[in-house]
Structures are given as C-alpha cells and as structure tokens.
Specification:
This protein has 105 residues and is of the alpha+beta class. Helices cover 38% and strands 19% of the residues. It has a single domain (2-104), classed as 3-Layer(aba) Sandwich (Glutaredoxin), CATH 3.40.30. The protein binds glutathione.
C-alpha cells in the first residue's frame, strides 16, 4: 500500500510532500510501519499547464497539483492544506499536530 502524491518541485504540492515527511520522521521508527510508503509522482513543470496527463485529470478534473491517493483508505483528494490536515488526522500520533507548524497552512 502506498500514498501517492502528484507533485512539481517548488510548487504548492511541496506542502503535502513536506507534511508526509514531517509525520514520517517525527513519529519515529515504531509508527513508521503505520504510514504507507510515499510514492511521489513528479509532473513536468515545463508542460504541465498546457498538457496534463489523462490519468492525472481522472484523479483531479480541475487539473491542479497536489493530488493525494491513499490506497489503503481508498481516498483521492486535492488541495495542499486539506491533504496536510488529512495526513495529520490519519497518520500523526500527536508528534506534529501539537506544534505551531500547522499555522503555516
Ligand atoms: N488551493 C490549491 C491550489 C493548487 C494550485 O494552484 N496548484 C498550481 C501549482 S502551485 C497548479 O496546479 N497549477 C497548474 C494549473 O493551474 O494549470 C492548493 O493549495 O493546493
């Protein structure tokens, strides 16, 4: 099982990828087994505005990144802040969510 995030480096999708890593690192080895592995699907910055992959548009018809697909929970969602909150709600064990970090969202 994986969490897949469609991403373009330095774009807003960075928030979602960053939050995954915050949770993965902060919760330690014991709980790392509880969070599915991350698969980052990098899209091409140069062509993304004009040529969006069909497979991507099927996941998010409004054509924006980030998009998260969580196989384990059968969830597909978009919007960077919503994805960050989803990851906190479902995979953090209180290590990240109690830090002022979320005020950046
Ligand atoms: N409210 C959304 C905005 C997402 C957004 O605007 N993404 C931009 C990249 S930063 C995008 O996908 N632009 C491509 C396009 O509009 O064709 C979020 O924060 O996730």
């Amino acid at each position: 099982m994986t969490i897949k995030i469609y991403h373009i480096p330095f774009a807003r999708s960075t928030r979602a990828v960053w939050m995954y890593h915050e949770i993965y690192e902060a919760n330690g080895q014991a709980s790392n087994a509880d969070i599915p592995k991350l698969q980052v699907e990098i899209l091409d910055f140069a062509t993304f505005r004009t040529h969006k992959p069909k497979e991507f548009l099927e996941k998010n018809p409004n054509g924006k990144i980030p998009v998260l697909i969580d196989d384990e929970r059968n969830v597909t969602m978009w919007d960077g802040s919503a994805i960050a909150m989803y990851l906190l709600d479902n995979y953090d064990k209180g290590k990240v969510s109690n830090i002022r970090l979320i005020t950046f969202l």
